[in-house]
Design brief:
This protein is α+β, with helices and mostly antiparallel strands. The protein folds into three domains: 7-116, Butyryl-Coa Dehydrogenase, subunit A, domain 1, CATH 1.10.540; 121-205, Beta Barrel (Butyryl-CoA Dehydrogenase, subunit A, domain 2), CATH 2.40.110.10; 212-356, Butyryl-CoA Dehydrogenase, subunit A, domain 3, CATH 1.20.140.10. The chain has helices at 7-23, 26-35, 41-49, 68-80, 87-101, 104-116, 212-246, 258-287, 289-317, 329-341, 346-356, and strands at 121-124, 136-140, 143-152, 158-162, 168-172, 178-183, 192-201, 203-205, 248-249, 252-253. The longest helix has 35 residues, at 212-246. The protein is globular and about 70 Å long. The two termini are 34 Å apart.
Length: 360
């Protein structure tokens, strides 16, 4: 059996990579990161022109209606280029939540806006994957109160918020009683923050069955984060090999040193099987939903560990230059570190997988 990306999915990656090579080179990423901009509108507008926000939106609402594997292929490209964009929340988490838990009226209202790129979404789901002191959102009728920490894709038009009962809500960015505070973070390409709600009106997604929609949203989010990490790790490996072939010591390129060869080979050996694990996890979202939760946990935890290993090893291959802003290797290093923890670190996700199998 041959399992891999289709010609269409490979072409999709090629198109996204060409655009990002042109419009989101490292210098543009550095400019965004150092300038503390809220959004890179030029990059996002280009992704909208490519039709990427419409990937998971049904055709009846103006979307393309592709699958999670297609979205994962795109996320790998975004991670490879450390792209500053709200793709995860806007094009993946929000349409998944609204499609699974939204009423027909809510789908008609939000999904066309997502498909055309008219609206962007942030997501505040962290308390559903790990409760934190003095945080949590309580719903009372049509109002929300509380604090949601580590909201991702912070500067958006709407926010997808999970309450303490695992129900999902859509909150406009200009809603009464809503306060947005940015938080310092290692990956400046993707702003995060806290959302404070004080009797804030919300649009509850009511077509949910005991929080199953939230679990599905978190599962697909974990898979996309793993894909982002895979892209970042592959780029760090590629840059390490290129650097080793150019950098000379003792009148020899360091790629000729056995220790350097071993480090690059070990990174490649860890990355390659992770790609198949990611593809299969994304495949199960649409083709085998009962297996999706467990696979999402496995791929999120595994890529978190592999990404950390590659990030550290690639930096060692570069020596002292690996820490400099001149090479910019730290952008991928920080991206991987951010991905490791958001929506659950490897330890907590493995524990969740164990509970799902009745082992804990």
């Amino acid at each position: 059996m041959e399992f891999g990306l289709s010609e269409e999915q490979t072409a999709l990656q090629d198109n996204v990579n060409r655009f990002l090579d042109d419009k989101a080179p490292l210098e543009r990423v550095r400019q965004f990161s150092d300038g503390h901009q809220e959004r890179a509108d030029d990059i996002w507008d280009g992704l909208v022109e490519l039709g990427l926000p419409a990937l998971l939106v049904p055709e009846t609402h103006g979307g393309i209606e592709l699958g999670a594997l297609d979205a994962a292929a795109v996320c790998e490209c975004l991670g490879q280029h450390v792209t500053p964009s709200p793709f995860l929340s806007t094009a993946v988490l929000a349409p998944t939540a609204i499609r699974l838990a939204g009423t027909e009226e809510q789908q008609n209202r939000y999904l066309p806006q997502i498909a055309t790129g008219e609206a962007t979404f942030g997501a505040a789901l962290s308390e559903a994957t790990g409760a934190r002191r003095d945080a949590g959102v309580v719903a009372t009728k049509t109002k929300l109160n509380g604090k949601a920490l580590f909201a991702i894709d912070l500067y958006s038009d709407y926010y997808l918020v999970a309450d303490s009962e695992n129900r999902l809500h859509v909150v406009p960015s200009d809603a009464d009683g809503l306060t947005i505070n940015a938080l310092p973070q290692i990956d400046r390409t993707r702003p995060i923050g806290e959302i404070i709600l004080n009797n804030t009106p919300s649009d509850a997604l009511l077509n949910d069955d005991q929080g199953s929609a939230l679990r599905s949203v978190i599962d697909i989010g974990r898979i996309m984060i793993a894909a982002d990490t895979l892209g970042a790790a592959q780029e760090m490996l590629d840059r390490s090999v290129q650097y080793a072939l150019e950098r000379e010591q003792f009148n020899r390129v360091i790629a000729s040193f056995q220790a350097v060869k071993h480090m690059c080979a070990e990174m490649a050996a860890e990355i390659e099987p992770s790609r198949a694990l990611l593809w299969y996890a994304a495949h199960t979202v649409d083709e085998d939903p009962e297996e999706s939760h467990l696979n999402a946990c496995h791929v999120k935890a595994h890529l978190g560990e592999i990404g950390s290993f590659v990030g550290k090893t690639a930096t060692i291959v570069h020596g002292g230059m690996g820490f400099t802003d001149l090479l910019g290797l730290h952008y991928w290093f920080k991206r991987i570190g951010y991905n490791r923890q958001i929506l659950g670190g490897p330890e907590s996700v493995r524990e969740e997988a164990a509970r799902a199998q009745g082992l804990a």
